[in-house]
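> example.struct
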């Protein structure tokens, strides 16, 4: 049985969306390049990408609905069904998982009474497990509408979703202020974020992300270093390599010295390895 054509938007909604869509399309040398932001635009209208939204995108870009559907179903940031005002994603990739992400996800499922990809009865929170968000140094990480909530615990995550459902103010660990899923979708479509403080907010690297850089530059004081081979010592600003340190190797006692290349028979011709027992037989 052939599928019926998708219903169109009401005339006033379509006129408004067309104006916004043409502003987006004008940014690109080829109109089909505007498909991703247009999908965010129609998602901002109803909270998910509907058949109507996909037909609208196809019409304005000269694409088939099959081409639009292929893109909308490929990217996880596009919903295909109604969801909550706040998409709560718990990272369960390797590092977050071992740091407690799996425990957070399991406790939120029980606390909210929903499964993965499901929404609470009040329509406030949708829960999902997500893959790496490139914030491993803040693990375990929870994201709400793509804003970071770092170093979470099961208890802090439960307080977070309770605040979201009660309408209490919630501040991300870093980045822009939190807004609803539909408001986030419009921002991702490329329209200016008009909220107070949004422009000044920084989503840049936090202190944990910069530790390695500061260590490499010598900008640290007496960090506690645990060496895997049991050697003692802690790094100091004086641990910079002396002139006779072999190229590519940090000085002895440097926090990364245990990771330096070690001398082997292949790299030290003066001390070649003897034949193995099997070779000598």
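> example.seq
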């Amino acid at each position: 049985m052939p599928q019926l054509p998708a219903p169109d938007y009401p005339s006033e909604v379509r006129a408004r969306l067309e104006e916004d869509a043409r502003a987006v399309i004008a940014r690109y040398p080829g109109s089909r390049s505007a498909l991703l932001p247009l999908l965010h635009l129609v998602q901002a209208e109803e909270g998910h990408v509907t058949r109507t939204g996909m037909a609208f995108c196809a019409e304005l870009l000269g694409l088939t609905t099959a081409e639009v559907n292929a893109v909308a179903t490929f990217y996880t940031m596009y919903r295909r069904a109604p969801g909550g005002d706040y998409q709560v994603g718990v990272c369960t990739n390797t590092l977050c998982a071992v740091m407690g992400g799996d425990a957070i996800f399991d406790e939120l499922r029980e606390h909210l009474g929903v499964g993965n990809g499901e929404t609470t009865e009040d329509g406030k929170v949708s829960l999902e497990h997500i893959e790496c968000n490139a914030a491993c140094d803040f693990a375990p990480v929870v994201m709400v509408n793509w804003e970071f909530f770092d170093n979470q615990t099961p208890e802090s995550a439960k307080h977070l979703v309770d605040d979201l459902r009660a309408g209490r103010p919630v501040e991300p660990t870093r980045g822009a202020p939190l807004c609803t899923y539909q408001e986030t979708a419009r921002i991702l479509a490329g329209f200016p974020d008009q909220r107070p403080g949004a422009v000044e907010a920084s989503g840049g690297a936090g202190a944990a992300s910069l530790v390695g850089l500061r260590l490499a530059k010598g900008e640290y004081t007496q960090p506690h270093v645990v060496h895997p081979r049991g050697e003692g010592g802690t790094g100091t600003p004086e641990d910079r390599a002396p002139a006779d340190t072999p190229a590519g190797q940090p000085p002895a006692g440097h926090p990364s010295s245990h990771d330096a290349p070690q001398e082997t028979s292949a790299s030290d011709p003066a001390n070649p390895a003897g034949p193995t027992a099997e070779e000598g037989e």
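> remarks
Confidence is low (pLDDT under 50) at residues 235-241, 254-258.
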